[in-house]
Structure of Protein trichome berefringence-like 7:
Amino acid sequence: MMEIVRNVNLDLFVQFRIFYKRVLNFGNEIMKGHGKIWGFQTFNGLVAIGSLVSFVVAMSCAFLYLFPRVPPVVHSYGISNSTTSVEKCNVFEGRWIPDESYPLYNASQCPFAEIGFNCLANGRKDKGYAKWRWKPKNCDIPRFDVRAVLETLRGKRIVFVGDSLGRTQWESLICLLMTGLEDKKSVYEVNGNKITKRIRFLAVRFSSFDLRIDFYRSVFLVQPASAPNRAPKRVKSTLRVDKLDEISKDWIDSDILIFNSGHWWTPSKLFEMGCYFQEGKSLKLGMPITTAFKTALNTWASWAETMINTNRTSVFFRSFETSHWSGHNHNSCKVTQHPLSSSKGRDQSSISNIIIKIVRKMTVPVTVLHVTPMVAFRSDGHVGTWSDNPSVPDCSHWCLPGVPDMWNEILLSYLLPGNDISLQ
């Protein structure tokens, strides 16, 4: 292409030189026959200028012909643009900024926030951890409008599936939405259950909006099973990485489906508990955890492609949330008063990389809520010793209100009408 442009430019330049010489020769002939006339010198100059303009126009036309301008396409990914840059906005690339309008709710006034996550009620004195807002680099997340969100979600069923960190996001969303209701009693758990980690299924109904928000505890997403016959004594149970959790049939009939997994895929939660992997009837004693996670997530992906009606259901998968344990054995929990100035490598996760890679290959639209980079800085947002069991420090879970509220603001920005929703 560049060779063509050079040839076109050279031809035009040669033609211009020939044309320019002819004009000057014509002027000289006239001057020889009629003397040196000042007026013709002016005319000669005008002809030369006109020729130069013609040359510039010809060059411009040639360039436009070879490189037609195409208007840039800007994907807002469900968020409002605050820049004229044509660069695609990555909502998860940004920084935390202080904002006195936060927090958006009081956990003590929300009966669906676990006491173990209500850090202020459990004695935390510094309140600054709840006054930070995530600011993407090239755009803004819309300010939370609870009434608009409730109207958008009217008649919907939202389902969270995952571990206790998924349950934290579930609790956060309920508390956020309750701020828009005068009658708090119109919101209730459908089975009258108290919010606790011991129950596999919880469902809260907003009766005035015919809205239901469910949580299913499935920490691995795939099916747990007892040890097969003739298994070694160290095998107490298995994970069927080729079979999705048997309660998956209850996830299908939903409008918004949010998954998370990864935090239980560790030696302490698996091998040290006597839990190993199984495919079909084959026990995979030597299968590495990352390989097993890939297999399990591919099982989930196949299920999603087969079972979910994506004309109705919007599917999300939240990436890995980096914890802030420290010390030689990662058993020390130091909660800071402010976010870290550096991610210290916590913005990267092999679990998150696996999630992103598998989702990209799927034939149905799934949005990855890639929270790993944004939570890497929030060493101040953890429960620490401000839980209902202060003798056991916690640098994995988050205080409410706090970091999970921002995940929900991002999630809701994808769903509000008028936003350009992109589902990868």
